[in-house]
Specification:
199 residues, mainly alpha
């Protein structure tokens, strides 16, 4: 007789737990030894798993660093999409990024570790730059879906500038007083940006 199948919800939770554990120990090792000096076997051993299990969740070490990017980009897209139709593109993007900061708030230690590791490895800096481009394209696409603001060039410029402001806010937040919320850093960066543009 076949064993009763495990409830899908429980299986998914176990998979997510294993994935998060691999991310956690990988970031610890990357921070302590360096990204290039850390092997996949070391990550698997530290997580009490096999290299084969590692590859069940990640195709490479690089993927561990950017594992949550797709979900985060989709969350940002939804925030842009929820803004009023007639709102100027910059205002829509600005508000979306500030609201997105609330989603990222509880991941401060994780984000700080990723920022540190990325800054120390050349290959990761290139991948991070590509990720910023992906975020900008996603935001620009959402802005361009609106009939009232379909100027692709303008939307691409707005999205790129906002991504850079958000990037600076994340870097500052990851190394600052943990009690100050990310939303405050994002607002500060956008305020500085707007003052510079007006001046």
């Amino acid at each position: 007789m076949n064993e009763p199948s495990e409830p899908r919800g429980l299986r998914e939770r176990k998979k997510l737990k294993a994935r998060r554990e691999l991310e956690r120990v990988a970031l610890e090792l990357f921070s302590g030894k360096g990204f290039d000096q850390t092997t996949i076997r070391e990550i698997a051993d530290a997580a009490d798993m096999s290299p084969r299990t590692f590859f069940r969740y990640f195709s490479s070490k690089e993927e561990v660093i950017f594992a949550r990017a797709s979900d985060d980009i989709e969350a940002l897209r939804l925030r842009v999409r929820s803004r009023p139709e007639g709102e100027p593109p910059y205002e829509s993007a600005r508000h979306a990024f500030i609201e997105w900061a609330d989603r990222l708030q509880d991941s401060r230690e994780d984000i700080a570790a990723r920022v540190r590791v990325t800054a120390d490895a050349g290959a990761l800096r290139r991948r991070a730059a590509q990720l910023r481009d992906d975020v900008a394209r996603a935001v620009a696409k959402e802005l361009s879906e609106r009939q009232s603001h379909s100027d692709g060039t303008r939307n691409a410029l707005v999205a790129s500038v906002c991504v850079e402001a958000m990037t600076v806010a994340l870097v500052l937040w990851s190394g600052a007083d943990p009690h100050r919320p990310l939303r405050a850093f994002v607002r500060d960066c956008f305020d500085h940006l707007e003052r510079e543009i007006r001046s």
